[in-house]
UniProtKB/TrEMBL annotation:
Gene Ontology CC entries for this record: ribosome
Protein name: Ribosomal protein L11 methyltransferase
Gene designation: prmA
Cellular localisation: Cytoplasm
UniProt-listed NCBIfam families: PRK00517.2-1
GO BP annotation list: methylation
Binding site for S-adenosyl-L-methionine: 135, 158, 180, 227
MF (Gene Ontology): methyltransferase activity
Family, per entry: Belongs to the methyltransferase superfamily. PrmA family.
Length: 290
């Protein structure tokens, strides 16, 4: 059966509140939630929650969440076709440049230019085609940090398609532990590492946060990159401090501009200092050091 998208149209302030409230309410269900600009000039946004089954119950809970934050708006449904829509949507996507990196699909191999560090990402079920501001921000930050610090082992936590792990491997030729909570993402990550000729560097594993023995075995890391979301990243601050080597760099993304100060504060509390912020749309990417 296809997936159902439950969506609500609202203004910018309403979409922020709804996104956060849904994130909190559905955290344990692990349902994807997204915010999309319907009309950027007029601040009209659409918040979507994707459900595979139990849609009536999820819609009821979604309405209760909206009631809880005093948001009155219609919840609409769209049954998504049972086709590989990710593949379909990627067919039309343009390659993305971020620093020296070029992230592209197989159909755009001919558009690589000399000097590009090309990363080919096949259409798949995992997040990370380079088009999102958080991925592009991380790619840019990775280029700067790797050039300056020459890390010798790295961790990409929340690897998705492995786009960042592949970038690290291609640029620095170093072992990268690439972990994700989602076993499908981990499988896609390993496939993409193979496709890009870096499987000897990229070790894709399934793990929730830092809950696996492999982290202890591979630590301390010279560089950690984590593009997840602000709240889980704040919770992980003590573990990041534990597994990152002294004087080493951490790149964080998946953070909205308005969450930036809170995330920095959580990390300063663990002995980190803020080095640089990159803004991409409403998203920020942080470079921190310990
Ligand atoms: C925004 S995507 C980033 C993907 C890719 N790294 C990129 O930059 O495009 C976040 C990824 O983090 C994973 N994730 C979310 N929470 C996690 C957790 N607690 N531990 C490990 N992975 C997590 C998700 O499954 C998803 O693949």
């Amino acid at each position: 059966m296809g997936q159902t998208r439950l969506h609500v149209t609202t203004d910018a302030a309403g979409s922020d509140r709804l996104f956060m409230a849904l994130e909190a309410a559905f955290e344990d269900d692990g349902l994807p939630i997204s915010v999309f600009d319907l009309d950027e000039a007029n601040g009209v946004k659409e918040v979507s929650l994707y459900a595979d089954d139990g849609v009536d119950d999820i819609e009821r809970r979604m309405r209760a969440v909206m009631q809880g934050i005093g948001l009155t708006a219609a919840v609409e449904r769209e049954v998504l076709p049972d086709i590989d829509w990710v593949a379909k949507s990627l067919e039309g996507l343009q390659p993305v440049h971020a620093g020296r990196f070029l992230v592209h699909g197989s159909h755009d191999r001919h558009r690589r230019r000399p000097g590009d560090l090309a990363i080919e990402i096949e259409a798949g079920l995992a997040f990370g085609t380079g088009h999102h501001g958080t991925t592009a921000g991380c790619l840019e930050m990775i280029e700067t940090v790797v050039r300056r610090e020459k890390p010798r082992n790295a961790l990409d936590l929340g690897t998705g398609s492995a786009v960042l792990a592949i970038a690290l491997a291609r640029l620095a030729h170093i072992p990268v532990l690439a972990t994700d909570i989602d076993p499908i993402a981990t499988r896609v990550a390993a496939d993409n590492a193979r496709l890009n000729g870096v499987s000897r560097y990229v070790d894709a594993r399934t793990a929730v946060g830092f809950q696996a023995a492999i982290f202890g075995q591979r630590a301390p890391f010279d560089l950690i990159v984590a593009n997840i979301l602000a709240r889980p990243l704040m919770k992980m601050a003590p573990d990041m401090a534990r597994f990152l080597g002294g004087g080493r760099s951490l790149i964080l993304s998946g953070i909205l501009e308005r969450q930036r100060d809170a995330v920095i504060a959580a990390y300063v509390g663990q002995g980190f200092r803020h080095i640089r912020t990159l803004w991409r749309g409403e998203w920020v990417t942080l470079h921190l050091k310990r």
